[in-house]
Structures are given as structure tokens and as C-alpha cells.
Design brief:
Distance between the termini: 51 Å
CATH class of the largest domain: Alpha Beta
CATH superfamily of the largest domain: HUPs
Shape: elongated
CATH topology of the largest domain: Rossmann fold
Oligomer: single chain
Strand order of the largest sheet: 1-2-3
Structural class: mainly alpha
Bound molecules: tryptophan
Radius of gyration: 26 Å
């Protein structure tokens, strides 16, 4: 049975809240229990250091996220649940990929551009003010997270799609330059459920309007009491559809309970009573996992053991794969040249038409990326036809002058140039 390989990371900077639960944790726990999937879920603690230099916060968040996912029933036998920093092959691969990734690709990253824009808006002379190399090259680390395990299906939010595309570009470049080792990853985007926060805006750490998943009962009640309502009095009918209270209720209750709650709104339930009902319902939903969470937080050794087991499982894949990757780049034991040459490329399994098409698309993208400056040169030339013809002639001469492997590479490039420049080459 070939299982679909799903992989996602959770940056360890915050405390899990109801929004994280519905958006990411609940679907991941479900996937972890699905025998047709091979899921890789990891605590992205190296990513945490990009934005957060408060060691206590990173450590606390790592504990809380690990205990939360486990308390909610993550199946660590079926899925692989690990801490990024326990897998030394990830930073190792990051460096190799960094050496293949063009700086221009990183210049286009949304996360980096947002910082540059903020500096520009603030009138700051230094547009890179506050930008670390970690922030700048963060998409390479993320590409390594994904490519290290050759995962194809990457559940992420919309804001992360660009990073998956960058991972594909980088993988294509590696496959083209060294050996066809990487699967092209694809974003898996669920219909986003927008979970409202205390103030009615989207629940988010950055708005400071979250309800932590496993806060105490007392805190849960006090937070629910802070939820914004309108000024309608008890007895006045209320509009369920514009109410944050109602929306939160419906996200956790059954259809029948939700319908009953709606009719109470129509009958004019007071806001105070509606808040109590929301509390009862949410608290009922969270009571058991909260108990398990509190137990785990009191017994972090057992969490550590599970994470170590996950790292071991993950490394069963990453250690031998890293050996192949190093080998492909020429980082090899001194005595393996001849053996390596005789053995040549590792035997590949039969690939499906889709895999072949994906590999082909990735290969093309890799080549295109390298050819981009040349194509830009043609596009910018006054006499595009002459420039294109000149470029093709030069490339042809290059193909003729080269030997075997290098020739094949140049030939591939020539073919793509011929396709790309076809409009000019009449
Ligand atoms: N950058 C992701 C986020 O902020 C987290 C993440 C890190 C991730 N590595 C990943 C997600 C690899 C998917 C795959 O949400």
C-alpha cells in the first residue's frame, strides 16, 4: 500500500487557542488516525527563533503545543510526531538548498517584503532594518522541512502557499543540477473556517483576542464574558447570524443543539444567559482533553519520550536519504568515487504518469529559473528577434562544444530556450 505522505509544521511561539484547534489541530489529529495516510507533524522550533528571541516563551510554547496535540488524541503510532531540532539532517539539507536557491527568489518572499514595506512606510533609510538572515532565508528552511521527507501533501494556510511554491522551485533546481531525488510538494488548503475572537474579528494572537484551548474553567468563563455583544435587552429577539457568541457555539455543538440555540436567540435570551450556555457547551467539549492536557503538563517526561520516539522514526527516513543527497552533491567518503560511478544513480521505482509529469514540470521550472536572466535580456532588447536568434546560436555552439553530461544539460536548456523564444524566432 502506498500511503499519501502529509507533512506540516507548527511554529512554537504561542499558546494553542480555539482558532488553532479548528483550523489545524483537529484536521491533523484526524489525519494522524487515518491508516491510508503517512503523516509527519512537527514542532517547528527552529522556525520559532526567526521571530522570537525569548527562550522561556519558545520552551513553554513547545511544551504546550506538544501536550495539546497529544491530549487531543494525536496517534503517534500511525503518524510521526517530532521536534524539528531533533532532526540534524534538516539544517544540513537547509545549507545544501541554500547553495542552490537564488537570492532573487528570496527577495520575492512575502514575509521579507512585508518587513521592507514596513521600513519604507516608516521612512526608514535602511530598508533591511531588523531583517535577520533567518527571516530572509526562512523559505529555504521550510523547503528543507518538506523535502527532507519527500512529503507531497502540505496542509497550510493561504499565507504559506508561496513557501510551498518556493520549495518546488528549489527542489526542481536540485533535481536538475544533481539527481532527481525530490518529490514536488503541493499545498493542501482546506476551506478556511474563520473563527471569531473575543472582539468579533478573526481569532488571532496578533489581535490579542484569543481563547486558549486549555485555560482553566474559571478563565474560560471570564473570557466568554468579555465577548462583544450588542445592547439588546433580555426579551428582545437577537440576530444569531451576526453574533460572535452564536458562531462560536455552532462551531463546537451538534446541528440540533445549534438549532435550539438559534431559537433561543429568536425568543430573546439575555446575553448573560447566552454566555453561560456557550460556556457550558464549550466546557463540556473541552473538559476531558483538558484533564489529559493537565496530566501531560505534569508529566513532561512522558511527552519527551514520545517526541524521542517520533524523532527516531523520522530519522529512519532522513538519515539514509541525507546520505543519498550528500552523495549526489559530491560530498562522499574518499573511497567511493569508483563504486559511486559504477553504481551510478540509485535505482528508481516505477513512477506514475502524474509523478512523471510533476517531475517534468519541476525540471522545467528549475531550468527556466536559471535561464531567466537570458530571457529577460531578450525581452528587454530593442531587436528581440535578433537577440533571440543570437542567444540560440550561442547556446547551439555551446551544446556542440561540450561533452556528454554537460552537453545533455546544455541541450535541455537549448530546448527550453527554443520553446520560450519561439514567438521571436520566425
Ligand atoms: N511556516 C509555517 C507557518 O508559519 C510553519 C511551518 C514550518 C511549516 N515548516 C513547515 C508548515 C513545513 C508546513 C510545512 O505556518
Amino acid at each position: 500500500m502506498t500511503q499519501k505522505r502529509v507533512l506540516t509544521g507548527i511554529t512554537t511561539t504561542g499558546t494553542p487557542h480555539l482558532g488553532n484547534y479548528l483550523g489545524a489541530i483537529k484536521p491533523a489529529v484526524r489525519a494522524s488516525q487515518d491508516a491510508s495516510l503517512s503523516s509527519y507533524f512537527f514542532l517547528a522550533d527552529f522556525h520559532a527563533l526567526i521571530k522570537c528571541h525569548d527562550p522561556e516563551r519558545v520552551a513553554r510554547s513547545t511544551r504546550e503545543i506538544a501536550a495539546t496535540w497529544l491530549a487531543l488524541g494525536l496517534d503517534t503510532d500511525n503518524a510521526t510526531f517530532y521536534r524539528q531540532s531533533d532532526i540534524p539532517e534538516i539544517p544540513e539539507l537547509t545549507w545544501i538548498l541554500t547553495c542552490l536557491c537564488s537570492k532573487g527568489l528570496m527577495n520575492r518572499s512575502h514575509a521579507y517584503k512585508a518587513s521592507v514595506d514596513a521600513n519604507r512606510d516608516a521612512g526608514n533609510q535602511d530598508l533591511d532594518d531588523g531583517v535577520t538572515m533567518g527571516l530572509f532565508s526562512y523559505p529555504v528552511l521550510m523547503a528543507a522541512d518538506i523535502l527532507m521527507f519527500n512529503a507531497k501533501h502540505i496542509p497550510v494556510g493561504k499565507d504559506q502557499i508561496q513557501h510551498i511554491e518556493m520549495a518546488r522551485d528549489i527542489a526542481g533546481r536540485f533535481n536538475h543540477t544533481f539527481a532527481d531525488l525530490f518529490v514536488m510538494p503541493e499545498p493542501m488548503i482546506d476551506d478556511p473556517v474563520i473563527i471569531p475572537g473575543l472582539d468579533g474579528r478573526k481569532m488571532s494572537k496578533s489581535y490579542d483576542n484569543t481563547i486558549p484551548l486549555f485555560c482553566s474553567e474559571k478563565e474560560l468563563l471570564s473570557l466568554i464574558k468579555q465577548i462583544k455583544t450588542d445592547s439588546r435587552l433580555p426579551g428582545e429577539p437577537k440576530d444569531a447570524d451576526s453574533s460572535t457568541l452564536f458562531e462560536l457555539y455552532s462551531l463546537f455543538a451538534s446541528d440540533q443543539e445549534t438549532a435550539e440555540f438559534r431559537s433561543k436567540f429568536e425568543q430573546g435570551i439575555g446575553w448573560g444567559d447566552a454566555k453561560l450556555e456557550l460556556f457550558e457547551s464549550l466546557n463540556g467539549y473541552l473538559r476531558e482533553p483538558r484533564l489529559r492536557y493537565n496530566e501531560l503538563m505534569q508529566d513532561l517526561n512522558s511527552v519527551e519520550v514520545l517526541l524521542n520516539k517520533g524523532a527516531e522514526k523520522a530519522r529512519e527516513y532522513s538519515v539514509p536519504f541525507m546520505r543519498e543527497i550528500r552523495e549526489a552533491t559530491g560530498i562522499r567518503p574518499l573511497n567511493t568515487t569508483l563504486v559511486g560511478a559504477a553504481k551510478s544513480a540509485p535505482k528508481k521505482k516505477e513512477k506514475s504518469a502524474e509523478q512523471l509529469a510533476n517531475a517534468e514540470a519541476g525540471r522545467r521550472r528549475g531550468i527556466l529559473m536559471q535561464l531567466k536572466p537570458l530571457l529577460d535580456q531578450v525581452a528587454g532588447a530593442e531587436d528581440k528577434a535578433a537577440e533571440a536568434a543570437q542567444l540560440i546560436a550561442t547556446k547551439r555552439a555551446e551544446v556542440d562544444s561540450l561533452k556528454k553530461k554537460a552537453q545533455q544539460k546544455a541541450q535541455n536548456e537549448l530546448e527550453i530556450l527554443l520553446e520560450e523564444l519561439a514567438p521571436y524566432l520566425v
